[in-house]
Amino acid sequence: MKQSLNHDCARGALGLLLILALLNLSAQTDFTFHSPWPHSEKAEISTCQVFLEIKGDVVRPGLYCFSSPPSLSEALARAGAPLSSINKTTESLPKEPLASGTTITVTCPDNGPLRVNRSSMNAFWRFTLGIPICLDKESAEGLTALPGIGEKMARAIVETRERLGGFTHLSQLRLVPGIGPKLMGKIRPYLTLCADSE
Fold first, then answer.
1. What are the beta bridge partners of residue 106?
2. Strands 62-66 and 33-34, sheet pairing
3. Most confident range, picked from 4-13, 104-113, 178-187
4. Which of 45, 86, 135, 186 gives a 20 to 30 Å CA spacing to 149?
5. pLDDT tens digits, 53-68
6. Is 26 in contact with 33 (CB distance < 8 Å)?
7. Dist. CA 91–CA 95, nearest whole Å
8. pTM value?
9. Are 107 and 139 in a shared domain?
10. Are 122 and 141 within 8 A, CB to CB?
11. Nearest in space to 38 (alpha carbons), one of 65, 15, 74
12. Residues 114, 91, 125, 34, Cα dihedral to 10°
């Protein structure tokens, strides 16, 4: 019973820290966190399965939470893109659901369809939201989001990645000077290979 209570307290504290981090990040940027249940008092961030960042020429740019992977048109509608523009834009685009950790940048030229660019969410957002960082694509600056990784170590990871022609297994991080079993154990849960995340 005591152990269960401790687990509940720990989960509650982690949830509170995540909410505070999101509020702090949104206060420092032009972004807003948007709950998938705008009119529900019982909305909880713990039920979010997919996080998307939507920015650019939309009414409500920000960080969006979905309970399941949305289509591009659903995500654009949530951010306030005009329905007529969404229909024209999404007709020619892939229909597969969007993966968590995607950034959608919308450009709306005068009298034309929306232009939509998809990219990977900033590593610091990904780390905060518990979305794995892609080891094969992340920049040295982004790798500093990992616990225990400073600028020098991040550059060493990128240099090793270039020397190997890309990582094929996470265990290859041990080839980076300075990454021993302890640091490897600390950062491994936050990483994925590109092939695993696409």
1. 56, 116
2. parallel
3. 178-187
4. 45
5. 999 988 899 999 999 9
6. yes
7. 9
8. 0.67
9. no
10. no
11. 65
12. 80
The answer to whether the CB of 151 falls within 8 A of the CB of 140 is yes
As given in the structure block, the two tokens for residue 116 are 């939509």
Structural domain boundaries, residue 141: 132-197
Say if residue 173 is in the same domain as residue 103: no
Considering the domain architecture, whether residues 67 and 9 belong to the same structural domain is answered as: yes
| Long-range contact set of residues 73-78: C-beta below 8 Å, sequence gap at least 24 | 75/104, 76/104, 76/106, 76/114, 76/116, 78/34, 78/54
Residues comprising the chain, all counted? 198
Residues 139, 82 within the same domain: no
Strand partners, 6: none
Whether the predicted pLDDT of 106 surpasses 50: yes
Q: What is the DSSP letter of 57?
A: S
Amino acid at 186: K
* Neighbouring-strand partners of residue 102: 52, 120
pLDDT tens track for 157-182: 999 999 999 999 999 999 999 999 99
